[in-house]
Design goal:
alpha+beta; 57% helix
């Protein structure tokens, strides 16, 4: 029976079912999500498998569905496009075959593409005609005061040439004089068109330069981003240069008649064609809306249907097909507790397909008899986030101890040690509680940002982190860095001394005697305003980090013991666990013992006051002296009798543990390997098949004995050199890691101190300082900035920092003691019809 602590017990099964029942059987298994199929065609390329063509067709159908969905969303706000929300207006389409749906989707895609291309062509023509209308109107505005003769045209042009160079102006005046004596046309002409507004200035400069000043450009903004221009020029060569300039600047040129009457006719013709195109565009949009309306309501149904069929086809590619008996053969892993549901799925698949041949279920073996089973933990909404954190480090081996149950408590607690504050914990817990209460609304609602998705998926761990932060906040006695005087402070200040004394032990105020009855829970609020508060909190939090860290690592080492007992690996128990736990306890366990003894000793007792050597020792000096001068403990560093002897024994025990971890295990593994080769049977054990008597059901069970060797995988070749080098690395890593990992837990102290001090700074500078000014505006601004700093820096950046540090402590310092020591496992990936959000 499996649990979250260890993987579910897995059973390896083989299925035989008729070709007719293949689709329905795989569909039932995918809906139940209880089997992980093994690929029996690994040697065959994916392009050569039987269902490869059908899978490609499904992918093409999904592409068409995505295209149709994109087009419907693109025109969702169109005024001609309205969805029908009434059920009676819908034609329910529930496809049963891929062929029918594929033909329909192909027709729909072709229709949408055709009408879209037609609409784009019409809109482009409408745009060009509209620009031509604007150009005609702009030209008419320019020429409205001129006569219809060329003489009047040139004279009017000369009157508008205020910006021309003297040479160009004289040239146009000469043309004006010539136009009075000649009746010829074409002496002065123009080029008109439309250009992007952002290119207008560059276009005018370039035109002036290429024509050497023999042109005049008049422009006017007529719409957003577009400008009408008219270039007046002389001669065919200049005109050719101007036209090339227009082409270079991607300006649209339009043929504008020089005669006023012809321009009017062109303008009327343009307006008439615009009205006709508007009618065509309206009809085209109505047709497009009708096409989109005919399929829009069924896209999700089609998408799910095709995706399900693709999943079933991919699963069928993992099966073997027995052509002689027209049977499909499938193999896979099923949780032993799901065998009853598994057989029911096989039965339902056979009945729904009306298959005549019965389905056969063959139990090949349980556990590791058929190779390495997948790791399967039953999780729920609460435990899924913790399991995801653990599996980000690595997948547990089959039946290996799972760190997730421990992380449910230790992860939020270590986070709270670094983030302890009642106010901040309440904000975090309330935020997570809102996500938990309205989780169904958030799940069924529209897709939100990636940051919100991370918060929503981790709502339960955020809620626990908030609760534990409230707990540690009560211990630290801080609410937004303000101490709480819930149980009344046990210290008081007097006029006789600058230091405080206990309210029930203040006979001599100058002695600074502590209270006989200390504060009931957490720190006394007076510590927050004392001058030595930082030193006291530093000392306490640093020692607390060591105690919590060593305890956390010892729990991890004990988990390796339970792994060894479960897998019946006596070598790992006696030559890995025992030396590791002795090494850890002889040094750092002893340090924890010294911390506890120092905390529990009453240094203000009468006996201690009369003893000159009775004073709090420096624990760092004790630990250094244990290695540098074994057997010698100065009187000022003595905590208990026989301390020198105990330290020598512990030091010797730690030294003995190093070769104890290094040498015996590789040698014993080599001895076990040679012993197995020497006495291994040369004849494989026979296989027996047992048919359950009295089976009247169509589903037949076959159980294969333990000696079934055809499914077993060959063991990895033993290499003593690799094993010894691996053990050497493991030993060095553990010995050095015992020191570095213990020091790593000091981050609990550092992050907690940083969080507390940062809260103090924000409170003092943004709340207390504005209050002392007495200015209501400064107080209001300071309060708003304090809220922003609290939410942005403390609740945002600090919480993320504490989360990452707690994550590192679990991955590196805790899990490496027992998790994935002999390699990672493989996760149970059942056949399922569910798809991720990305899919």
């Amino acid at each position: 029976m499996g649990s979250l602590l260890r993987s579910e017990e897995m059973t390896y099964v083989r299925l035989y079912f008729d070709q007719v029942a293949a689709h329905d059987t795989l569909a039932e298994l995918a809906r139940s999500e209880i089997i992980q199929l093994e690929d029996l065609n690994q040697e065959v390329s994916s392009f050569q498998k039987e269902a490869a063509a059908e899978i490609r067709r499904c992918e093409e159908m999904l592409r068409r569905i995505r295209y149709l969905d994109e087009r419907s969303k693109l025109y969702k706000e169109d005024e001609h496009y309205r969805y029908s929300n009434k059920l009676e207006d819908r034609r329910i389409m529930s496809p049963k075959k891929l062929e029918d749906l594929d033909e329909f989707l192909c027709t729909m895609e072709h229709s949408v593409k055709e009408i879209t291309a037609h609409e784009e062509s019409i809109e482009e023509s409408y745009k060009e005609l509209n620009e031509m209308r604007l150009v005609l109107e702009a030209c008419e505005d320019v020429f409205k005061d001129t006569n219809r003769s060329e003489r009047g045209f040139v004279k009017s042009l000369v009157r508008q040439m205020g910006a021309l160079t003297p040479a160009a102006a004289n040239a146009f005046r000469d043309l004006s004089a010539e136009s009075g004596t000649h009746s010829g046309k074409g002496l002065v002409n123009f080029v008109a068109g439309m250009i992007d507004t952002e290119r207008r200035a560059a276009f005018e400069r370039t035109t002036f330069r290429v024509t050497k000043g023999n042109s005049y450009v008049k422009s006017e903004d007529v719409s957003e981003g577009r400008t009408v221009f008219i270039v007046f020029l002389t001669g065919s060569k200049v005109r050719s240069k101007v036209e090339r300039t227009c082409t270079a600047f991607q300006a649209a040129r339009y043929p504008i008649p020089e005669d006023s009457e012809e321009r009017e006719k062109s303008h009327e013709t343009c307006l008439e064609r615009l009205r006709e195109l508007e009618l065509v565009i309206t009809a085209t949009k109505a047709s497009r809306a009708e096409i989109i309306r005919s399929y829009r309501d069924y896209l999700d149904i089609w998408k799910d249907f095709v995706a399900d069929e693709k999943t079933i086809l991919q699963a069928s590619n993992m099966l073997n097909y027995d052509t002689s008996r027209s049977l499909f053969i499938a193999e896979g892993w099923v949780a032993s507790t799901d065998m009853e549901e598994f057989t029911a799925c096989i039965k339902r698949g056979q009945l729904s397909s009306n298959a005549q041949a019965p389905s056969l279920v063959e139990v090949r073996g349980e556990g590791k008899s058929q190779g390495e089973p997948p790791t399967y933990f039953r999780i729920n909404r609460f435990t899924s986030v913790f399991q995801a954190i653990i599996e980000s480090y690595g997948i547990a081996q089959y039946e290996e101890m799972n760190p997730a149950p421990f992380a449910v408590i230790t992860f939020p607690f270590l986070f709270a040690v670094m983030f302890g504050d009642v106010g901040h914990g309440v904000i975090m817990a309330c935020f997570a509680l809102i996500l938990i209460i309205f989780e169904r609304a958030f799940q069924s609602g529209p897709k939100r940002s990636e940051f919100f998705a991370y918060c929503f998926n981790g709502r339960y761990i955020i809620f626990l982190m908030g609760l534990f932060s409230i707990f540690t906040g009560f211990i630290y006695n801080e609410v937004f860095a303000i101490p709480m005087n819930i149980f009344v402070s046990r210290w008081k200040f007097t006029d006789e001394s600058d230091v405080a004394c206990g309210i029930d032990n203040c006979d001599d105020p100058g002695a600074a005697n502590p209270p006989l009855n200390p504060y009931p829970f957490g720190f006394d609020p007076i510590w927050k305003i004392s001058k030595n508060s930082l030193a006291m909190f530093n000392s306490y939090k640093m020692k607390l980090s060591i105690v919590l860290g060593v305890t956390h690592m010892i729990v991890g080492i004990f988990n390796s013991f339970w792994n060894g007992v479960h897998f019946r690996e006596s070598i790992d128990v006696f030559f890995v666990f025992i030396p590791q736990i002795l090494f850890m306890c002889s040094i750092f366990g002893y340090l924890v013992l010294l911390i506890l003894v120092k905390w529990m000793t009453d240094w203000n007792s009468v006996e201690c006051q009369n003893d000159p050597n009775c004073q709090p020792p420096d624990l760092k000096a004790i630990l250094i002296g244990m290695f540098m001068s074994p057997g010698q403990v100065p009187p000022e560093n003595t905590l208990f009798r026989g301390q020198a002897v105990v330290q020598v024994v512990l030091l010797l025990l730690a030294l003995v543990c190093i070769p104890w971890m290094l040498l015996p295990r590789p040698l014993l593994l080599r001895r076990r390997h040679y012993h197995k080769i020497r006495y291994e049977s040369l004849v494989p054990s026979s296989t027996t098949e047992e048919h359950q008597p009295g089976d009247t059901d169509d589903t037949i069970f076959v159980k294969k004995g333990e000696g079934a060797g055809d499914g077993e995988k060959p063991e990895k070749e033993f290499n003593f050199q690799d094993v010894f080098v691996g053990q050497l690395i493991h030993t060095i890593e553990f010995v050095l890691g015992a020191v570095s990992n213990t020091a790593s837990y000091l981050r609990l102290w550092a992050l907690s101190l940083a969080h507390s001090e940062l809260s103090d700074v924000f409170l003092e500078k943004l709340i207390f300082f504005p209050l002392s000014s007495g200015n209501i505006v400064i107080i209001l601004v300071g309060f708003l900035v304090w809220i922003a700093a609290t939410l942005g820096v403390l609740m945002g950046m600090e919480s993320l920092s504490a989360f990452l540090h707690a994550l590192r402590l679990h991955w590196v310092e805790f899990q490496n003691k027992f998790y994935n020591v002999h390699g990672t496992g493989r996760k149970f990936m059942p056949l399922t019809l569910k798809r991720s959000e990305e899919e």
